[in-house]
Amino acid sequence: MKKQVFLLCAGVFLMTSAKGLSDPVQWDLFDPQHQFTLSAGSACADGEKAVLLHSATASPKQFAVMRTALSTDGLQNKVLRLRAELSVQDVQAGAGLWVTLYDGTKQIAFRNTQKDMVRGHGVTRVQEMTLWVPPQATRAVYGVLLLGPGTVSACGVHMGPAMPARDLNTDQSVAVQTMMFAINAIRTQALHSSLIDWESRTPPLLELARDGSTDDLYAEIRHLLADLHDGHSFVMPPDMARRMAAQPEQMPVFTKIGSDIGRIALPSLTSHSAAGMKEFSLAGQQIFTQAAAMRGWIVDLRHDRGGNMWPMVQALRPLLGSGDLGFFEDSSGKRSAPWRAVVQGVVQQNDGPDLSRVPVAVLLGPQTASAGEAVAIALKGRPNTRFFGTATHGQTSGNKSFTLPDGGMLAVAAEFELDRTGKRYEGPVQPDGMEADPDGAERAAEAWLRQGF
Fold first, then answer.
1. What percent of the chain has pLDDT over 90?
2. What's the CA gap between 127 and 158, in Å, rounded?
3. Is the Cα dihedral 33, 34, 35, 40 positive or negative?
4. I need a surface site. Which of 32, 119, 139, 222 has the fewest CB within 10 A?
5. Which CATH superfamily is domain 2-161 in?
6. CATH assignment, 246-451
């Protein structure tokens, strides 16, 4: 519910003077749980009245915001900065800044400082955030958020253009280098880079990198990638990239169904090290060697969310054989060398049993994504093979990965994926037999295999 806020002593809307692009600024309260109040506080250092957001009864998960709006006419494709001095009393959950951009009534961007909230008793901090305004933006709504009980006092709330950038050719901060690297990689490698107006987009992004925080930097790179509309490109800041690299890898899992059907479940795999790839691929090949007498196989890809496709296809080498499995194709139509069940950095081992003609049932689902979908595509066109379950996630493009100057990781959808017959996949891989129930898909796969014995 939206409430207009009045100053009891003056009987007027709660206003501040020129703190943004309009003068004065009128604040209102968005309080969906009716637990908060908005009022004028004591004078700030600049002589203006603070704005107080308070609750004594809110739960830690309830929230309210003080907000105002401004037109973005004339500000499109520029960098805006929101800045405020926030003082908190008895705030444990946190207080911070937020901005939402709209195209008419459609929300097109949302940002906040939730990773760096102000908390505690008697704590005062200046918070700021910068963001790029897309060409289609018509309005910005911004303000201060309070989560849970306590009081936040906001002084000097200002929303306006960031200061003009210095000569970026001489500014070689890590943040600017990171943004320049990301822009160049996306512009030259992305399948749909032509969707972005690089001439107008690049200068404000470099300006933001110089003046913004790390969160601002990565938020804008994510925004840039979203404008490619490929559903697959992504970026990770350094801390997230380090956490992902440190996660232990899972190995393929074997399950015996009756006396004559084997099931191999492939998990996600992010490792690109020679040792990690070899361990994964050999774990899969050893399963087939130890269960070579199976008359049919189920390949379960329903929990393969992606990562590195090459150890995955290598793990299935006894089923896939040594022939061509698929191709990458760039936006100009140029094809890569054919996919084969060999991983770079792995010395070729004994091929194991030849199971290339054994019946195979493949289980798919919405969590089958990225490299997991590439494995499914590699199995398309294989003789005596049928697919069960539901459509995959739809990230059927080849990503090129880059380490950014600050240690982050960027992945750009740079190539289409084709199966061994030359069919291009631009969306989910579809099963032959649609079965939404997981147990039902397994039963259908087993029944189909037994029909062929």
1. 75
2. 11
3. positive
4. 32
5. Galactose-binding domain-like (2.60.120.260)
6. 3.90.226.10
